[in-house]
Amino acid sequence: RRLQLWLPLRAICLGLLVLILVQPQIRRFGRGLDLWVLVDRSASAADAMAAHLPEWQALLERSKAPEDRLFYVDYADLPVVRGEGTGSFSGSAEATRTGLAVQHSLSLMPQHRAARILALTDGFSTEPLSGLAERLAAQHVPLDYRFATQVASADYGISEFRVPSRAQPGEPFILEIQVSGEPDATVPVEVSRDGKVLTSGKVVVRAGQGSMRFTDRVVTPGAHRYSIRLLPEKDARSGNNVAESWIEIIGGARLLLVTNYTDDPLARALRAQGFEVQIIDHPNSLNLGHLSGTKGVILNNVPAYSIPPEFLSALDLYVRVQGGGFLMVGGKLSFGSGGYFRSAIDELLPVSMELRTEHRKLAVAMAVVMDRSGSMAASVAGGVTKMDLANEGVARAIELLGPNDAVSVLAVDSEPHVVVPLTKLRENRKDIDDRVRRITSGGGGIFVYVGLKAAWEELKKSDAGQRHVVLFSDAADSEEPGEYKALIDEMLAGGATISVIGLGNTLDPDADLLQDIAARGKGRIFFNADASSLPGLFAQETVALARSAFLDEPVKLTPGVGWMEIAAKPLQWLEAVDGYNLSYLKPDATGAAFSGDEYAAPLIAFWQRGAGRSAVVSFPLGGDFSQRVRDWPGYGDFTQTLGRWLMGDELPPGLGLRTRVDGSELRLDLLYDAGWEDRLTQNAPQVVVGEGPAGESKTLVWQRIEPGHYTAAMPLEPGRVVRGAVQAGKFTVPFGPIISGTNPEWMLDRERRSELQAVSQASGGVERVDLAKIWKAPRREEFSDLRPWLITALLLVFVADALLTRLGWKVRKLPKMQGPKLPRWRTKERSVKDASAPRVQPVESGPVAPVEPGPDAADARRKRFRQAKR
After folding, report:
1. For the residues of 695-709, what is the DSSP string, one character each?
2. What is d(CA 111, CA 97) in angstroms, rounded to the nearest whole number?
3. What is the residue-wise DSSP string for 241-277?
4. Could you tell me the pTM of the whole model?
5. pLDDT of the residue at 674
6. What is the Cα–Cα distance from 373 to 473, expressed in whole angstroms?
7. Rg of the chain over all Cα atoms, to the nearest angstrom
8. What 3-state class would DSSP assign to 783?
9. Contacts of residue 652, Cβ cutoff 8 Å, sequence gap at least 6
10. How far apart are CA 94 and CA 109, in angstroms?
11. For residue 824, what pLDDT is reported?
12. DSSP string covering 709-742, please?
């Protein structure tokens, strides 16, 4: 009885204690099942999925219960949870990352629902599934699978392509190819080097395997790209029929001179000074391999549109990361006149090529004829259409025009549609831009003649000094040329010129027509099959037209003090040059010579860009307007100083880099001797790589294996070229281009299937032949223990009871208070009792004597207490 368990808080404590001893639990999962379906959208599984996926999805939808839920995750290179009403996958299909898709699904699963994973795949993952079984077991999620297979048919593929990484000029080397496939057959093989067919042969496939070897030798230094292609008569998969690799032909340190002259005096001068010079007089043949082993690149009066965009974009990484040198030489086809303003190399140059309004000599009236045929509605990478990219190109061209220039835009299919009549930009620029960006594709092809005629009618309204038409058309869909020759003659007589941007290549059906229009129109011709390059092509053409700033009059040369920063001794300068390209010195750049006219423009300028160097010579060094320079006695010393500065410092001995491709992984080994130990300790080496033509760079992490040996590795994406350099202090060791020999997506390694089956079995999953039964699969019974919550509640109630006990449960005597109003009968009873009590007489003021307590006083206290309680 002393425990007083009848008190409310103590009774609650007793009840909680009993519940804790009973160990109550609550069911954690509901009755429904969450099924996460992983749909393989990779290239190798595309055909099989197209045949089976609609049926499988319909079966899963019909057989599930109302409380069940179904989630789809489309995956290839990356997983994407399918939204409501969508069934397409827009990611890259050149990889099968099943492990990543499973982990992504596990991270999205709610904890209060039972779940399973069903993988609909061909089973050929391009990444290992290591650690996946443990993750599935930890979350108690079984992994089921269903293989999507094609109907058995003949299939052949390249399993391995071996090419040596380096060779000496003229040294023979062996290239080996391994082919796998069924049934036995003789498969034709085609071998190409740098895009040109080198040889062809046949490989004999027996018992599922075949091999072939061939030899080659290359004299030209640089990197060369080899490509192998299988040409079987019957083949289930074509994606595994191609393999590529690069080989570097090692030559001495050299300069790459890209020139517009057949007998370039700059090449003679450099060779006379002891430089090894590789001359490229056909710029459209340039590729990434020309940068391998090259210490400096010189563009001598070469327009941007004649250089492949891939090579032009690669120059930035070549200079900033690989430590190369770059020099642009002036002329009428160089700088802004050559279309380099806002090009891929604009940021490399130490001068700015904008033509300020006060320096514009002539206003420009430009009419753009745009192809809006049905083919322009086709989508390209990123979800945009060809029409969107063409609109962006025209908008960018309008942005480059000045306020006093005029523009007209016509969208043409079978007839011309005047989107923007000939209008001066001024305050109309935003309205014109809005109209251009809303152009949509129509139908049919583009009628060339009516488009050119409508453009000429618009240009007739202008009296501008330059009138020009830009015809943009699909090289495979240009129709109805009509009497275009007579029309072009009329336009030339009226002072108008025509340039053409062809979407496609020179082998397309209508390429000859477009080339003839550009030639007769005294303009330029661009061909590019990559629609994403359209904005850049429009910008190049606009700059070449509106911002041509070659001044063809002699101008005095004023030397600057900057020359001594790169020269060993002063130079005896020539007095004047015959002409130059107007430009403006950028901040932080150094000028070595300036024009003596009112512009004071830089004629020679240079600066450091990352690990490399960049310079410009704004006046011609060959061809027209170069007579004074070629007669200059200091011409040789001048070119020698520039050449030495471009090539930079030589790498000291004792440091070497070894690269190799292991499957789809690039491995780098940096080896050095004791002489480099202190240098690398004080300044740790860095390895920077760039992927793709533009060379988006990133830094890899080195691992020190032992003294004198660092190593690093990175995965290679299929078809993407990798370039980079090891930077050790002020020295760089460049490498690349490197590419994965074969596409892992098409290797179809059967060990990957076995690995997926093992992971499924370890997680409690099975192969699902009948997909409808997956909803009846045993579900994990899991309960949550309630004791932690009950113990917490017990402690709280116990502490509350202890607190009240500590403070005292009994109520102390309270001061006299005015009680509540009593009923009439109680008031009468009280008045009777009070009347019998002796009346207290008032006492005069003065000291009060203590009163001895008595029985009456105690009764009065009890009475007041009862009254207070009421």
Report:
1. TEEEEEPPEEEETTE
2. 25
3. SEEEEEEEE---SEEEEEES-SS-HHHHHHHHTT--E
4. 0.70
5. 85
6. 9
7. 42
8. strand
9. 675, 731
10. 27
11. 54
12. EEEEEEE--TT--EEEEEEETTEEEEEEEE--SS
Q: How far apart are CA 208 and CA 184, in angstroms?
A: 7
Report the helix count and the strand count for the chain, using DSSP H and E: 19, 44
Question: For residue 28, with 0-12 CB atoms within 10 Å meaning exposed, 13-18 middle and 19 or more buried, which class applies?
Answer: middle
How far apart are the C-alpha atoms of 644 and 606, rounded to whole Å? 13
What are the CA-CA distances from residue 471 to residues 177, 370, 433, 520 (Å)?
46, 7, 18, 13
What is the rounded distance in angstroms from the CA atom of residue 790 to the CA atom of residue 795?
A: 9
For 295, other C-beta atoms within 10 Å of its C-beta total 21
- Dist CA 268 CA 230 (whole Å): 45
| DSSP per-residue string spanning 104-167 | HHHHH--TTSEEEEEEEE-S--SS--TTHHHHHHHHT--EEEEE--PPP--EEEEEEEE--SEE
pLDDT of residue 452: 93
The answer to whether the beta carbons of residues 209 and 178 sit under 8 Å apart is: yes
User: Which of these, 249, 213, 250, lies nearest to 228 by C-alpha position?
Assistant: 213
Identify the DSSP state of 494.
Answer: T
Q: What is the sign, positive or negative, of the torsion defined by CA atoms of 692, 696, 697, 701?
A: negative
Are 299 and 327 a contacting pair, CB within 8 Å?
yes
Count of CB atoms within 10 A of residue 220's CB?
13
Of 720, 740, 694, give the one whose Cα is nearest residue 92.
720
Question: Which residues lie below 8 Å from residue 841, measured CB to CB, with a gap of 6+?
Answer: none
Which residues on neighbouring strands pair with residue 227, listed in sequence order?
192, 244
Residue 388 vs residues 366, 438, 439, 543, 692: alpha-carbon distances, Å:
21, 9, 8, 21, 23
CA distance 279 to 302: 13
- Fill in the DSSP letter of residue 850: P
The Cα-based distances of 820 to 109, 658, 702, 827, 833 in angstroms read: 63, 101, 88, 11, 19
Percent helix, strand and coil across the chain, each to the nearest 5: 30, 30, 35
What is the pLDDT, as a whole number, of residue 707?
85
Q: In the chain, what is the straight-line distance between the N-terminal and C-terminal CA atoms, in Å?
A: 29
Measured CA to CA, the distance from residue 30 to residue 237 in angstroms comes to 45
Annotate 564-587 with three-state secondary structure: HHCCCCCCCCCCEECCEECCEECC
Say what the pLDDT of residue 407 is: 93
- Given a cut of 70, the residues of the chain with pLDDT beneath it are 1, 27-30, 84-88, 90, 150-152, 355-362, 381-383, 443-444, 546-548, 663, 693-695, 780-782, 809-855
Cα–Cα distance list, 248 to 19, 178, 636 (Å): 79, 22, 32
Q: By the 8 A CB rule, do 367 and 579 touch?
A: no
Contact 503, 371 (CB under 8 A): yes
- What is the C-alpha to C-alpha distance for residues 322 and 688, in angstroms, rounded to an integer? 9
Q: According to the model, what pLDDT value does residue 88 have?
A: 64
Q: Is the peptide bond before 509 cis (omega within 30 degrees of 0)?
A: no
Using CB atoms within 10 Å of the CB of residue 850, give its burial: 0 to 12 exposed, 13 to 18 middle, 19+ buried: exposed
With CA atoms as reference, report the closest residue to 191 among 158, 234, 233, 238: 158
Closest CA to 471 of 460, 462, 484, 461: 484
* Total residues belonging to the chain: 870
Tracing tokens 């160097």 back to the chain, one arrives at 613
Q: In what order do the strands lie in the sheet with 294-300?
A: 277-280, 254-259, 294-300, 325-329, 612-617, 602-609, 590-595, 555-559, 576-577
Report the pLDDT value the prediction gives residue 843, as an integer from 0 to 100. 46
DSSP secondary structure, 175-229, as one string: EEEEEEEES-EEEEEEEEETTEEEEEEEEEEBTTEEEEEEEE---S-EEEEEEEE
What pLDDT score does 146 carry? Answer: 94
The three-state secondary structure class of 667 is strand
- Give the three-state DSSP class for 279: strand
Q: What is the C-alpha separation between 296 and 56, in angstroms, rounded?
A: 59
